[in-house]
């Protein structure tokens, strides 16, 4: 059989004729999208909390309840967003999501009642914490296979930068122009940052522009398929139905709940927990400053280790560190104790975030990744929304967060066992799995 000649550079679409792998441009846009998710993240709402309380006449508890249900609504929307991502592709979806997150910020600039605030929370959490986390990570996972974990770590720099920039940006706007004008400025900022780069540079997959993942030397689809087959590639294009029939999907979803629930819960109550132990609010605020850079470090450590060890083992090991985190937090009595706790928490959160993003394409392939991740993100976001509740109940009942932290320590061993029980990646349990190159070439 004659081998089909390789595609020459001049035969590629103009956008793919870069002197380096085009996926690095996709990665840069994904990092920018992660940065632009900030208006829907918890840290930006914390800046506006006092303004909501004063101007709307709503208590902090009431606002927290609205925020909880807004986040749960966003979790439910992830299934629709994931399916839409597979249908319409990342370019269309990112433009729509960016328009909507800006519109949500505009809506928040005009809220007068509790129900209006709830709608604003639901929209911003859906588009920010949800869609602008799911879509960039899925893009990177499609364009990178061997280098996926490290590429996801690089992408995380956008989110880390946003957590440092946007709270300062928001508070400065509030001081200078008032909170309503601040939301308008944030809306315009989101539109200006992301829409044009997405339209100009984002493409669905490397195969859609005649390339292969990771910058492998380009060839025809048939040649690429033979290369990956001869190299022993095992990635499969699972459908959601096939994935739902495998125990791995559900066990890995359980394995990922501790990171979301515990991480969100302790950070939501962190200031109160630390100050209740006799430390100052400046120390508790300083802990947040430690968490962000160590989370980035955790991402890169996970990116390196994921190339050497099965991801399910890394998830299991990290659960031990989560228990250690809770033990450290219980024992905090000096400022340096708090900073050590913050450093370990950030390191572990970043580590788990990277592994839990890269494990889904490892197990289920790239073809239907958006749909599958929409379901898994529903579980993750639901856990995050419920995370603060155990600590809040513990404090209301006993006047202390100790019992809630002890309850938290029950979950990581369960998650570790679920990760180990998931087993390794395999073929779909029902007919229909196809080679990843063949599948994506049709997109």
In CATH, what is the homologous superfamily of the largest domain?
MFS general substrate transporter like domains
Task: Estimate the mean pLDDT confidence.
Answer: 85
Order of helices and strands: HHHHHHHHHHHHHHHHHHHH
Which shape, going by the Cα principal axes? globular
Residue runs with pLDDT of under 50 for 5 or more positions: 1-7, 219-233, 431-443
Helix content: over 70%
* Main sheet summary: none
Corresponding CATH architecture of the largest domain: Up-down Bundle
Number of domains: 2
**Ends apart, CA distance between termini:** 27 Å
Give me the count of strands. Answer: 0
Provide the CATH top-level class of the largest domain: Mainly Alpha
Rg over CA atoms: 22 Å
Portion of residues in beta strands equals under 5%
**Individual helix count:** 20
At the third CATH level, what is the topology name of the largest domain?
Answer: Growth Hormone, Chain: A
Q: What class do helices, strands and sheet pairing give?
A: mainly alpha
């Amino acid at each position: 059989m004659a081998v089909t000649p390789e595609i020459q550079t001049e035969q590629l679409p103009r956008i793919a004729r870069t002197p380096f792998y085009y996926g690095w441009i996709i990665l840069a846009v994904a990092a920018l999208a992660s940065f632009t998710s900030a208006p829907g993240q918890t840290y930006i709402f914390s800046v506006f909390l006092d303004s909501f309380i004063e101007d709307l006449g709503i208590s902090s508890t009431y606002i927290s309840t609205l925020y909880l249900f807004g986040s749960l609504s966003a979790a439910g929307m992830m299934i629709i967003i994931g399916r839409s991502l597979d249908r319409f592709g990342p370019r269309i979806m990112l433009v729509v999501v960016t328009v909507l997150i800006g519109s949500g910020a505009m809506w928040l600039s005009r809220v007068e009642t509790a129900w209006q605030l709830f709608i604003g929370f639901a929209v911003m959490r859906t588009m920010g914490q949800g869609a602008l986390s799911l879509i960039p990570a899925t893009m990177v996972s499609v364009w990178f296979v061997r280098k996926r974990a490290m590429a996801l770590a690089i992408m995380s720099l956008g989110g880390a930068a946003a957590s440092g920039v946007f709270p300062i940006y928001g508070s400065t706007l509030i001081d200078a122009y008032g909170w309503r004008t601040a939301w308008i400025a944030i809306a315009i900022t989101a539109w200006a940052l992301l829409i044009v780069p997405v339209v100009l540079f984002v493409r669905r997959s490397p195969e859609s522009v005649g390339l292969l993942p990771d910058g492998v030397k380009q060839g025809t689809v048939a040649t690429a398929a033979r290369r990956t087959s001869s190299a022993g590639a095992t990635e499969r294009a699972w459908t959601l139905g096939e994935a739902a029939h495998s125990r791995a999907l559900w066990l890995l979803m359980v394995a990922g709940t501790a990171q979301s629930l515990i991480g969100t819960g302790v950070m939501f109550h962190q200031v109160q927990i630390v100050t209740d132990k006799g430390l100052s609010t400046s120390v508790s605020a300083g802990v947040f400053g430690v968490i962000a850079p160590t989370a980035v470090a955790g991402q890169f450590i996970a990116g390196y280790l994921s190339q050497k060890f099965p991801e399910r083992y890394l998830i299991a090991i990290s659960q031990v560190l989560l228990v250690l985190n809770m033990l450290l937090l219980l024992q905090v009595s000096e400022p340096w104790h708090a900073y050590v706790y913050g450093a370990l928490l950030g390191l572990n959160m970043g580590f788990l975030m990277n592994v839990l993003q890269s494990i889904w394409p490892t197990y289920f392939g790239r073809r239907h990744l958006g749909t599958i991740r929409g379901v898994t993100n529903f579980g993750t976001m639901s856990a995050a929304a419920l995370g603060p509740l155990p600590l809040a109940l513990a404090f209301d009942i006993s006047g202390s967060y100790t019992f809630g932290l002890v309850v938290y320590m029950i979950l990581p061993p369960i998650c570790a066992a679920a990760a180990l029980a998931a087993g390794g990646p395999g073929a779909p349990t029902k007919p229909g799995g196809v080679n990843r190159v063949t599948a994506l070439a049709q997109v």
